[in-house]
Every structure is written in structure tokens, then in C-alpha cells.
Specification:
Mean pLDDT: 87
Order of helices and strands: EEHEEEEEEEHEEEEEEEEEHHEEHHHH
Number of strands: 20
Distance between the termini: 20 Å
Strand order of the largest sheet: 3-18-5-14-15
Radius of gyration: 45 Å
Helix content: 25-40%
Number of domains: 4
Oligomer: single chain
Strand content: 15-25%
Largest sheet: 5 strands, antiparallel
Shape: elongated
Low-confidence stretches: 1-35
Number of helices: 8
Length: 500
């Protein structure tokens, strides 16, 4: 009897979602017998049927996934660019370089700087510095072999107040605050250790060790400037009494006395405890550098013309870059965000920025919009700057132009920065802005990913089912072929017998 055998090779097939599944199992696997009876490559046939069943669905899901990925990426880029723009503008305005700056006619006597939010366009004042603020300082008359020499232990008591000092000695002292004890023990009983302990106590004085040219060392103690910052030091042991400062004390020498700065503002005498004065002229910090009795210094202001022109030019350039990106994202044919509500709202807000009133309560004829400063909106949404118009506005209305770059609250009428930050705040909103769009697209992409995962599982289930069905069919065909072979051989044998 003639018998037939068929063999199938172990193959690897790719499923409809891109993952690879092996059709190779154990030696008794039904897949190994596929095609053995029918002669058809049933493994390839199964793969083709599964792919055909899921191809359209998988292609649709893949297209949706790609589109959503692009939308999420586009929103993230817009958020990054716009936030960077808003942050840079805010830092520029708050930095003070776009506001009028105070001037001093004699910087060797005093200098003036603007405080945050100051309005100094009309600043005019005279200041005369009669005396600088001074700090009390005292140095020990006893010298020590080195800064690490052991001194002794005990407690130093430091008290702040007012004092009368002359010729290096204190004649009167009135305490103005509670005494501060400083403990000196075996861990800090060197000259360096004592200085460190005094500084850690934060008693209103600073201690340092001064080393002479011959290597010997002394302890120096200095207070803050101002009449009320005189001080006394009292030790409770013989070793620490070497640093006593006060009435009748000779262990230390007082090199300078505590005193207030004395000056005149427009002829009116005033005193301040520090040589840095921020509460004398609104919006101005004075730094007193030297005394010049009878030499008044005139304070005025200068407009930041160059800085504002550069800022406006930079603003227009960056604005146009953002607008170009928005146009690409909102292109009615190819734009990934053409139907995004938040992006369209941002586009419209920016287009209206040049005509938005930036100042309130201004006299007639005062420029209050960017358009009136020379910033024009072109038909394509980009901006151009007319520097001639800007220069004229700065010449005729310097206060208004400066106010346009003030640090107002987030509402119209409080300057360009406030208006732009308001737009930025809306654009970043997680309820209706770009952040809300990101949430929507991310949720949609998650749904698509779940659908792709389900499609993969469904394809695997279908392949298993079809493989089993074709295996059963192939087994029956093989049986039929075996019977056919037997019958053919039998008939041939019969015919041979009959012919004999």
C-alpha cells in the first residue's frame, strides 16, 4: 500500500496590530499538521484572513493615535513658547529698566536707585549729606600669641543701647534692649572660638580676629550703624574681662562711636540710622557715600528711551514668532489644531491686543493702546513697529508711555504686562485653555490605546479559532486521502488479478 506523508515548517507570522506571534508549538501541535491533508498553506491563509478582518479598524485607530499625538505635541509647544514669552516680558517690566531712573548730580556724595514700582518721571529734590551713619567698634588692648591661643571660659554679656563716646572711651550708656549672654566653654575658649560664639549669638554685633604683622592677635567687635546701636560687653571671669566694653573700661579701645546719618532734604534736617535710605523719597533708595556739608546734591530722573524702544522691538519680534506658529497650527487644511477651541481663542486674544486700552483715566490725546505707540497689526496678524511714531509718543507723553510698561494687576488699563499676563493666564487654564485641550487629547489617546489593545486580543482569539477549524478540516481531508489511496491500491490489485 502506498502511503503519503506531508510536512510543514515552523513559521513566524505577524498579527494585524504589528506584534509577532509564533506558529511553532510542541511536536504534537495541530499547526504542524496544517496543509498536510489538503495541500493548502492554511497557516498563511489564517494570517491573511485575520489581517483582512482587522486591517481597516487598525488603520483607523493608528490614524487617530497619530493625530492625537501630534495635537498633544503641538499644544505642549504652544504652551512652552507662550509661557516663555509671558515670563520674559514680566521679568523685563519688573526689572525696572523700562521705568524712569533717578539721577544724582554728585555720585561721590550719594547715588540713587529706583525701588520696584516707583513712578519717578517728575522726581525733583535736593539732598545734602552732613554726616554719614557710623558704627561703634572696639578692639582689645590685650594681644594674644595667636588666634588659636586659649583664653578662658565664662559668659560674655552683650547689651545694645545709646552711648556717649569721646577719645576712645565711653562716658555714658543707656540700655535699649535686653542683654544677650554668650557662653564660652572648653569647646570655644580660643580667640577664634570666642569670635564665632559672639557671631552665632546674633546679639547685634560682629566679632573678628585681627592678626598683627608680628603674628599677635586681637579681638575686634563692631555694631551696626546708628545711634541706637552702641553696645557694651561684660565678662564674668578674669579671662573674659579682657574684652569688656563700657563705661570706665580700659580692656578695649573704642575706635568709633555709633551715630546716625545727618542730611537735609530740600533744606529740612533729618537723621537715619543707615547710609542706605529707602524711606526719605518715595520710590527712591539713597546710598550715602560721603559727607559734604554745604554741598546739596540735586536728584532728577531720566526716561529709559533706548530701553523702551528695544523692548518694543523685541516684543514685536517675539509676538510675530508666536503668531507664525499659531497660523501653522490653525491652518484650515493641514493645521493639527484647526478645530481646537483654546488655540483659536488665544489667536483672537492676541489679534485684539494692539487695540486694547492699556491705561485708564488719561487726558484726551494721551496714547493708551499699542497702536497709538506705533504698533500696527498687518492683515496676516503679524505686527510692525513704527519707531518714528513711538519716539513722538515718548517725547510728548513720556509718563503715559512709561505707565504702559508698569507692573499693574491682571486687568485691562494696567499696562501691557498686565494685559499680556491676563491673556497668558487664560491660555494656560485647565478649564478652558490649552491645558484643558491637553487633558481632552490625552484622554482620547488613552481610549484609542485601549481599543488597539482590544483589537490585538481579538485578532489573537480569531487566529486561534481559525487555526483549530482549519486543523480539523485538514485532518478530515487527510483521512479521506488515506482512504482514497487504499481504495486506489486495492482496485489496482483487483484489476491485476483479473488480467491474469
Amino acid at each position: 500500500m502506498t502511503t503519503t506523508t506531508s510536512t510543514t515548517s515552523s513559521t513566524s507570522s505577524t498579527n494585524t496590530t504589528g506584534s509577532t506571534q509564533s506558529s511553532s508549538f510542541n511536536g504534537s501541535s495541530i499547526v504542524q499538521t496544517l496543509g498536510g491533508g489538503s495541500g493548502i498553506d492554511t497557516g498563511a491563509l489564517v494570517d491573511s484572513l485575520v489581517q483582512a478582518s482587522f486591517a481597516a479598524k487598525n488603520a483607523t485607530l493608528k490614524t487617530k493615535e497619530t493625530a492625537l499625538t501630534t495635537q498633544i505635541s503641538s499644544i505642549a509647544q504652544l504652551q512652552s513658547d507662550f509661557t516663555g514669552f509671558a515670563t520674559s516680558l514680566d521679568a523685563l517690566v519688573k526689572g525696572g529698566t523700562l521705568a524712569a531712573q533717578p539721577t544724582s548730580t554728585n555720585s561721590s556724595v550719594l547715588t540713587a536707585t529706583a525701588l520696584s514700582g516707583a513712578k519717578l518721571a517728575n522726581l525733583s529734590a535736593t539732598v545734602e549729606v552732613d554726616r554719614l551713619a557710623t558704627a561703634q567698634s572696639a578692639i582689645s588692648t590685650t594681644t594674644f600669641a595667636s588666634r588659636t591661643a586659649t583664653v578662658g571660659t565664662g559668659t560674655l554679656t552683650i547689651t545694645l543701647g545709646t552711648a556717649t563716646v569721646a577719645n576712645g572711651a565711653m562716658s555714658t550708656f543707656a540700655a535699649g534692649s535686653a542683654a544677650i549672654p554668650v557662653t564660652i566653654d572648653a569647646t570655644n575658649n580660643t580667640l577664634d572660638g570666642i569670635a564665632k560664639a559672639i557671631n552665632l549669638a546674633k546679639a547685634g554685633v560682629t566679632a573678628t580676629v585681627i592678626t598683627d604683622v608680628d603674628g599677635t592677635a586681637r579681638l575686634s567687635i563692631k555694631g551696626a550703624t546708628g545711634t541706637a546701636n552702641a553696645f557694651t560687653v561684660s565678662g564674668d571671669s578674669d579671662a573674659l574681662k579682657q574684652f569688656n566694653v563700657g563705661q570706665g573700661e580700659t580692656a578695649t579701645s573704642i575706635n568709633s562711636a555709633a551715630g546716625n546719618a545727618q542730611l537735609k532734604l530740600d533744606g529740612v534736617a533729618v537723621e537715619r540710622a543707615s547710609n542706605t535710605v529707602s524711606d526719605l523719597i518715595d520710590g527712591v533708595q539713597l546710598t550715602l557715600n560721603s559727607a559734604a556739608i554745604g554741598t546739596p546734591v540735586t536728584l532728577g530722573s531720566t526716561q529709559p528711551t533706548t530701553a523702551i524702544k528695544q523692548a518694543m522691538s523685541d516684543f514685536v519680534t517675539t509676538y510675530n514668532q508666536i503668531q507664525t506658529e499659531l497660523k501653522t497650527q490653525l491652518d484650515p487644511i493641514t493645521g493639527p489644531l484647526k478645530n481646537d477651541t483654546a488655540t483659536n481663542a488665544l489667536w483672537q486674544s492676541l489679534r485684539g491686543l494692539t487695540l486694547l486700552p492699556m491705561l485708564r483715566g488719561q487726558p484726551a490725546g494721551t496714547p493708551t493702546t499699542l497702536a497709538e505707540l506705533g504698533v500696527a497689526t498687518n492683515r496676516d496678524g503679524s505686527l510692525t513697529l513704527d519707531t518714528t511714531q513711538l519716539s513722538a509718543a515718548m517725547t510728548n507723553h513720556p509718563d503715559a508711555v512709561e505707565a504702559m510698561f508698569s507692573t499693574g494687576v491682571l486687568s485691562s488699563g494696567d499696562g501691557l504686562n498686565a494685559a499680556f499676563q491676563s491673556i497668558s493666564l487664560g491660555a494656560q487654564s485647565s478649564l478652558y485653555g490649552l491645558a484643558a485641550s491637553t487633558k481632552t487629547y490625552t484622554a482620547a489617546k488613552s481610549t484609542v490605546t485601549d481599543a488597539e489593545t482590544k483589537a490585538t486580543a481579538d485578532a489573537a482569539t480569531m487566529k486561534t479559532r481559525l487555526t483549530q477549524q482549519f486543523a480539523a478540516m485538514d485532518s478530515k481531508v487527510a483521512a479521506y486521502k488515506s482512504t482514497q489511496t487504499f481504495l486506489t491500491a486495492q482496485i489496482a490489485a483487483w484489476n491485476a488479478q483479473n488480467s491474469n
